[in-house]
C-alpha cells in the first residue's frame, strides 16, 4: 500500500479534510473560532505547552496506558489481539486526554470559564473534572430528558463543582443542549471557552481534538513495535461515535501499512448509511430522512448515539484509507461478555462495538487467521454495568 504522509496532518487553511470539514457557523461566532484556531496553533508549536500537557497526562491522567496482549482471546479467535487500555486512565476513558488539553488551552487564552454540552453525561463529567483541577468555572448544558435519565452523572458533575443547566426546549436532548451552549458562547466569548467533546464541529475543533487524542495512537504504535519485534499490527480498530478515540488511534498508524477500521453502531452508522451534509458547524456524513431532516441515532451505547461523524473520518472513508463497518446491539452485548470472561476486562458499551466486529470478522476474509489487531479499549464498563444488567435479565 502506498503511504500518503499528508494524511492526518494539518487541515487546509479553511479547515477542510478533502471535501469535508470547514467552518459553518453564525457570523457572531466566527471570531471566537478564529481566536481559538490561532491560540491552539501557537500553543501546539510551543514546546513548553506540549511539555506541560504531557506532564498533566502522566501525573494526573495516568499515562502512558499499557497495551495488553490478550492471549486467551487470541487463541480463541486465531488472530493476535492487542488492546490499547484507555480504560485505565483517570476517569476511565480517553475523554480525559481532550478535556485536559482544552482546559490547559483555556488558561493560556486567559479565560476563566468553560461551557460544554453533554448527552449521556460522560463528556460533561470529563469537562467538570478538568475544570476542577484547573480551578475553572464550569457550566454544562444538558437536555432535561437526559438530566432525568442520567441522574448519577448529573450528581458527579455537581460533586466536581460544575453547574448543570437543564435545557427544556425542542426535544430536550443533546441537540437542544448544543443550541443553548452556542447561545451562551455568543454572549460570553470574551471570558469563556466552549469545550467540544469529539472531532466534530467547526474548524479548529476536529483538528484540535484529534491532536489531543493523538497520544493514544503514538503510544500504541511504539508499544506494538516493542511487542512485535519492530513490526506494526495488520489491523487497527476503534469504535466511532463522533470519532475522537478512533482519530487519535488512527493518527499513530496512518503512515504505516496497517488497515484502519472504524466501528459504528448499527443505529447510528453515519458513514455506513449517511449522506454528505452540514451539521453542527462542519460538512461530513450524517443520517437524514428523504426530506433532509437529521435523524435521531439510536444505539444501546449513549456515547455513540449521535447522527453525525467527524469530518476527517468522512475524508478517510472517501479516499479508502479507512474502512467503516457497524455492529448491532445484540452482538455488542455478547462481545462485552466474551471479553469479560476471556480476559477479565469489562469494556464500556462503546468499545464493545469494536470487539463485536473482531469476533464476527476473525477468520474471514475481512480479518484473516494469523493477523495481528490493535484495538482501542476506549473506556471501562463500570458506567454501563447497571444498564447491561437490565438488558441481560429484563
Ligand atoms: C464518549 C465515548 C466514546 C465515543 O466518542 P468518540 O469521540 O467517538 O471517541 C467512545 N468510547 C467511550 C468509552 C466514550 O466514553
Which features does this protein show?
binds pyridoxal-5'-phosphate, Rossmann fold, 394 residues, 15 helices, alpha/beta
* Quaternary structure: single chain
Strand portion, in percent? Answer: 15-25%
Number of domains: 2
CATH architectural grouping of the largest domain: 3-Layer(aba) Sandwich
Shape: globular
Task: Name the strands of the widest sheet in spatial order.
Answer: 3-4-14-9-10-13
**Total number of β-strand segments?**
14
Specify the CATH class of the largest domain. Answer: Alpha Beta
- Unreliable stretches (pLDDT < 50, length at least 5) are none
Series of H and E elements: EEHHEHEHEHEHHEHEHEHEHEEHEHHEH
Could you say which structural class the secondary elements and strand pairing correspond to? alpha/beta
Q: Helix proportion of residues, in percent?
A: 40-55%
Radius of gyration: 20 Å
Number of helices: 15
TL;DR?
By secondary structure, this protein is of the alpha/beta class. It has 15 helices and 14 strands.
Ordered list of secondary-structure elements with their pairings:
Blueprint (H helix, E strand, L loop, with lengths): L15 E2 L2 E2 L8 H15 L2 H13 L7 E3 L1 H7 L2 E6 L9 H14 L4 E5 L4 H13 L2 E7 H6 L1 H9 L3 E5 L6 H15 L3 E3 L10 H23 L7 E5 L4 H8 L7 E7 L4 H4 L1 E5 L2 E5 L24 H8 L3 E6 L1 H15 L5 H13 L10 E6 L7 H8 L2
Parallel strand pairs: 4-14, 5-6, 5-8, 6-7, 9-10, 9-14, 10-13
Antiparallel strand pairs: 1-2, 3-4, 11-12
The chain binds pyridoxal-5'-phosphate.
Pyridoxal-5'-phosphate binds next to helix 10 and helix 14.
Verbal overview:
- This protein has helices at residues 30-44, 47-59, 71-77, 95-108, 122-134, 144-149, 151-159, 174-188, 205-227, 244-251, 270-273, 311-318, 329-343, 349-361, 385-392, and strands spanning 16-17, 20-21, 67-69, 80-85, 113-117, 137-143, 163-167, 192-194, 235-239, 259-265, 275-279, 282-286, 322-327, 372-377.
- The longest helix is centred in the middle third of the chain and has 23 residues, at 205-227.
- 43% of the residues lie in helices and 17% in strands.
- It folds into two domains: 17-56 and 94-194, Rossmann fold (3-Layer(aba) Sandwich); 64-92 and 216-392, Rossmann fold (3-Layer(aba) Sandwich).
- It is α/β, with parallel strands linked by helices and 394 residues long.
- Bound molecules: pyridoxal-5'-phosphate.
Amino acid at each position: 500500500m502506498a503511504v500518503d504522509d499528508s494524511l492526518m496532518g494539518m487541515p487546509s487553511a479553511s479547515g477542510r479534510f478533502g471535501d469535508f470539514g470547514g467552518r459553518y457557523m453564525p457570523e457572531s461566532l466566527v471570531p471566537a473560532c478564529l481566536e481559538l484556531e490561532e491560540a491552539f496553533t501557537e500553543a501546539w508549536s510551543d514546546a513548553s505547552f506540549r511539555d506541560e500537557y504531557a506532564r498533566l497526562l502522566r501525573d494526573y491522567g495516568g499515562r502512558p496506558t499499557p497495551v495488553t496482549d490478550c492471549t486467551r482471546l487470541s487463541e480463541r479467535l486465531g488472530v493476535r489481539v492487542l488492546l490499547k487500555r484507555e480504560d485505565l486512565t483517570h476517569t476511565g476513558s480517553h475523554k480525559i486526554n481532550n478535556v485536559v488539553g482544552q482546559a490547559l488551552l483555556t488558561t493560556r487564552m486567559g479565560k476563566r470559564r468553560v461551557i460544554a454540552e453533554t448527552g449521556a453525561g460522560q463528556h460533561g463529567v470529563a469537562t467538570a473534572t478538568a475544570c476542577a483541577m484547573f480551578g475553572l468555572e464550569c457550566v454544562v448544558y444538558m437536555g432535561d430528558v437526559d438530566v432525568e435519565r442520567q441522574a448519577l452523572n448529573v450528581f458527579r458533575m455537581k460533586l466536581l463543582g460544575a453547574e448543570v443547566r437543564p435545557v427544556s426546549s425542542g426535544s430536550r436532548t443533546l441537540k437542544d443542549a448544543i443550541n443553548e451552549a452556542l447561545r451562551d458562547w455568543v454572549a460570553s466569548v470574551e471570558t469563556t471557552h466552549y469545550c467540544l467533546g469529539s472531532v466534530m464541529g467547526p474548524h479548529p475543533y476536529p483538528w484540535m481534538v484529534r491532536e489531543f487524542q493523538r497520544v493514544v495512537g503514538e503510544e500504541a504504535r511504539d508499544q506494538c513495535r516493542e511487542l512485535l519485534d519492530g513490526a506494526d499490527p495488520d489491523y487497527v480498530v476503534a469504535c466511532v461515535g463522533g470519532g475522537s478515540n478512533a482519530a487519535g488511534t488512527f493518527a499513530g498508524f496512518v503512515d504505516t501499512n496497517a488497515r484502519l477500521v472504524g466501528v459504528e453502531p448499527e443505529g447510528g452508522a453515519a458513514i455506513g448509511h449517511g449522506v454528505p451534509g452540514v451539521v453542527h458547524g462542519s460538512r461530513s456524513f450524517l443520517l437524514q430522512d428523504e426530506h433532509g431532516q437529521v435523524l435521531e441515532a439510536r444505539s444501546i451505547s449513549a456515547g455513540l448515539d449521535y447522527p453525525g461523524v467527524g469530518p476527517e473520518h468522512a475524508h478517510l472513508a472517501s479516499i479508502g484509507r479507512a474502512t467503516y463497518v457497524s455492529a448491532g446491539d445484540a452482538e455488542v452485548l455478547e462481545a462485552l461478555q466474551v471479553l469479560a470472561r476471556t480476559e477479565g476486562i469489562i469494556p464500556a458499551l462503546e468499545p464493545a462495538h469494536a470487539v463485536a466486529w473482531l469476533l464476527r470478522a476473525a477468520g474471514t476474509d475481512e480479518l484473516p487467521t494469523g493477523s495481528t489487531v490493535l484495538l482501542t479499549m476506549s473506556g471501562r464498563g463500570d458506567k454501563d454495568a447497571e444498564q447491561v444488567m437490565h438488558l441481560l435479565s429484563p
